[in-house]
Amino acid sequence: MSLKKYNDLMEYIISSSMTRNRIRVFAMSLIVLAASVALVIGIGSDDCNANAGDVFIVPNEDGIDIEYMVKTDESTVQVGTSTVRDVAVDPSVVSVKIPGTVQHNGVTYEVVELGSYSFFGCESLTSVTIPDSVTVLSFNAFDGCTSLSSITIPDSVTSISGSAFSGCTSLTAVDMPKNLTSIGASAFYGCTSLSSITIPGKVATIGSSAFSGCTSLTSVTIPSSVANLYQDAFRGCTSLTSVEIATGLTYIGASVFYGCTSLTSVTIPDSVTEIGGTAFSGCKSLESVTIPDSVTEIGSRAFDYCTSLTSVTIPSNVTNIGYGPFDYCTSLAKIDVNQGNTRYVSEDGVLFDKNMAALIQFPAGRGGTYAIPSDTTEIGSYAFAGCTLLESVTIPGSIEKIGMYAFEDCTSLTSVTIPSNVASIPSSAFYGVCNGDSAAAGATVGHVFDNEYDAECNNGCGYIRDVSDQPGGDDDDPGVTPGGDDEDPGVTPGDDNDSPDVESGGDESGGSTLWLAAIIAIIVVIAIAFFIAKNRGMI
Fold first, then answer.
1. Is residue 112 a contact partner of residue 134, using CB atoms and an 8 Å limit?
2. Cβ partners under 8 Å of residue 203, min gap 6
3. Considering the entire predicted model, what is its pTM?
């Protein structure tokens, strides 16, 4: 072999060896790079804090699987996913202890909330231990847990959301946390075995229907921290005998104590400015009530059907009274008005506006005959409703308007004449007065309403019948819907539209997305490296 050929061969071998080394080094670099990317992404998906909305299941110390969801701060969790009727445990579980912290993939999370529907409909559940790390019991958390008999809520809890314990019919007692600030709408709705409740001194709001239908509840004290009692808060608490309301409350909403048939006494503090419509409707055992001077408004039918009520005085500062405030109060013989009142007056025990133009309420405990004053122009809605002892009413020619249900259930009324000046009268004006068998069968009507109303008798009595396709009748709006709730409590009883903090998510979907991203990243890195190496003549 010549010297030249030998040199050429050696150069080729050395050149090939260097190229192969470069390739090996480059390939090893790619492998290391790809492995690093995959490791970083893998750690981010499995070994670091999970993302908000990720869901995982961890058994408690008793081996009971509990589902958790990561909250927005990614360091705390709630029990359950807040998905409608997606419970956090097996629905057949009898007792469960919720831990204060939980570990997942090497990360420790603090349990701060019982999510919406977390134990919804767990009918076998009798007891729950809630850790002192929890601050919120969310909507419908224990809704329908019909076997739950008692529960201790830790002092860390500041909010009990709407319908949290709704329908817990076996619940007899609840230890309320001292730091509680709000009780949501329908929070204890229908807890028919709940016999006592102590509302802590920091509670500012008691939501609509919060204790409605708690038929075993016997007494309640409202602390001074509560400013508003929203509609139906204690509606239908038929065993409630007494209510103590501390100074501080300003508003008693519509139907708050509606149908509390055993309520014998209530103290309304001088901080209250408004009593809502039907607030005490149907409190048949209520014998007396003192309305403080602070009250400026009494809603429609606020005390109707309080059949044991014997006396009442309208204070001097009342400027607005709805229709029928004391209708069907069959033990009430007179209604008094403070002489300093500039809007209303009592004339012979009958409630009028100051000018006596409108008759607002005739006391239902009074019977016999009554002549409406000659200057009165209007008989208000429900003005004589439930006056079962009233036999005769003289309506003067000055009357121009008769309100809806004005003489409802005046079953002893035998004679009434409608003067020709009356421009409108709803068909309900004499509702229930005559049914063909009552004494009112002889009632007479003195005017036929041309083109608008028909005074044709119904079953031979003086019931005013609305002519079809004509204006007027029951559609006339007296200004307020009976038993209406003019206030907006902000939360609809048991409303699930209040969004939980985090949308439900999935641990699996998050992990799959990250691994897919890792694979794509590796492919991209290899492709770029291959392109660079080829351009530089390395391969």
1. yes
2. 180, 181, 182, 183, 223, 225, 226
3. 0.76
